[in-house]
Amino acid sequence: MGAREQHDPVLVIGAGGHAKVVIDSLRASGFTIAGLLDADATPRQVAGAPVIGDDFHLPRLRAEGLSHAVVAMGDNAVRERVGASARAAGFTLVNAVHPAATVSPSASMGEGVAVMAGAVVNAETRVGDLAIVNTGACVDHDGDLLPACHIAPRVALAGNVRVGARALVGVGASVIPGVSIGADAVVGAGAAVIGDVAAGTAVAGVPARLLHRAPPPSLQA
Ligand code: JB2
Questions:
Q1: Is pLDDT at 3 greater than 70 in this prediction?
Q2: Ligand 1 test: best mutation among 73, 85, 166, 168, most atoms within 8 Å of CB?
Q3: 38 Cβ partners below 8 Å, 6+ apart?
Q4: Model pTM above 0.85
Q5: What is the mean pLDDT of the chain?
Q6: Is 17 in the pocket of ligand 1 (CB under 6 A)?
Q7: How many whole angstroms separate alpha carbon 30 and alpha carbon 20?
Q8: Which of 17, 59, 74, 171 has a beta carbon 3.0–4.6 Å from 152's, enabling a disulfide?
Q9: How many CB atoms neighbour CB 91 within 10 A?
Q10: How many angstroms separate the CA atoms of 8 and 10, rounded?
């Protein structure tokens, strides 16, 4: 959508670091911010917009006429759950695609997607609902990003890579062509993934190997 188009104001759900980047993308695309909801409802300004309550306010805000929202939290499971709540309250989830991202005309986008500045989404890649393609990440052709996954900054996915629902590919990781990463899997920062990653597992390293323990927070984006 062009920057001069008229958009409905957007309710941003989440008011942490990720929300700041999403708000930048929205504003750069011509959206205005109606306000933010956060689990910490303390009134304050975040990225120059007011925190106006917590998620219990969704039905009231919808009844008052707000209709468009974005879920701006990096935790994939939380983003998926809150996205469902916002939809159940009657909100339409908008896509925050920074104008400095490059998205192929043949790529397809779900709803509630975030594509940050410098990201590339190449031909015939499918980006599922609530997925994040973060700053400077490259997703080559025929990718399949399932709902609520997160492709962290500077990740490189080669062609025909599938990323399962709620999976996290950590900052700077590389994935060779045709690999499938299972739902809820975690790929550590900087990993080189040269084979499939089973659902719910964590891998790290060059080449990536299975971790036999839960990933430390430092491996998260
Ligand atoms: O259920 C919730 C909820 N749970 C946590 N509903 C709402 N509305 N808000 C919730 N929160 C809020 O999300 C917390 O109170 C907090 O304000 C915010 C999370 O902020 P934080 O800065 O910790 O994380 P983030 O999700 O904004 O960003 C993470 O993910 C990004 C992708 C960080 O790891 C970033 O560094 C990363 N770039």
A1: no
A2: 73
A3: 13, 14, 15, 16, 46, 51, 54
A4: yes
A5: 95
A6: yes
A7: 15
A8: 171
A9: 24
A10: 6
